[in-house]
């Protein structure tokens, strides 16, 4: 064969045609793949065109960022009662009350203790969640057993010459995080034990687990909080008192435990019988079978359900306001009673600020859940 017909160099790499790759292909496949999707896409574009400019104008362009009171957020002189005559969002209110929203009535001079607690917790959480950082076991031991003691000493005081701060002076995001983190940390291990108990072959253990789960799932959380705050002290011996925040923490933790148990039980039921039989063939005990084979697979399957329970618990912390504990939403509502900041936009701005904080925390948990799902994905379709 003549050398004239032999290619001696690689052909140049050409980009794929736009019909099978690129933004044009993505738009065609995802936004205009059919008449129904095309109509919904055009409708969504119309809604965005109508709403986004007004939101941007209200939230940023006409917003009041710096003021000492609510006068700048009220209708301008000569203006009418129409919303068009008002200013934009009153962000100066959130700026002025930011410390109160974060700490509640916690003494200003002692807020460094709250900040230090948050920094230690954030560093420990980062060390625990980032895969490349070693010594995960010791970090987990520190966060589960040592950090709660440090947090209690710093926040409450009364030891090591730290001034005692009663929990009724706590508030804002401090209370929200304390309630949410306590519920999350307690509910997962207790929920796993209850799920195993509900599937136990021992009738007494199974009955006790089912009774606990059904009772706590059958009542609203607000009822649990009322019982913990108002009714529980009536059943205590004379002279015995429990802190109100502690009673709410116990109620929230047990309530979320019941829901977590059902989520974990769903994962346990998804594990095929062959996994149990394989563990028995290897001579593994019950707890080794659960800890090494069954639970890792079951918990991986229900990561979305677990995180969904955590997100719901985080948002449900606002219910502690009903029993007189000021969480983030409670401090916002208390701040709105300040007559100096009265304006048509103050309340709306405050609630948008609160919603943004809750959304940020919930979105972070959701994204980490997706990351863990992708990391542990084994390639099987679910």
How much is the average pLDDT? 88
First CA to last CA: what distance? 55 Å
Put simply, the count of helices is 15
CATH architecture label of the largest domain? Orthogonal Bundle
| Main pleated-sheet profile | none
**What string, H for helix and E for strand, traces the elements in order?**
HHHHHHHHHHHHHHH
* Shape designation: globular
Keywords:
single chain; 382 residues; mainly alpha; MetI-like fold; 3 domains; 15 helices; globular
Strands, helices and their partners?
Layout: H1 23-30, H2 35-61, H3 91-96, H4 98-103, H5 111-129, H6 136-156, H7 173-198, H8 203-217, H9 221-235, H10 244-269, H11 273-281, H12 286-301, H13 303-316, H14 328-335, H15 346-376
Helix pairs in contact: 5-6, 7-8, 7-10, 7-13, 8-10, 9-10, 10-12, 10-13, 13-15, 14-15
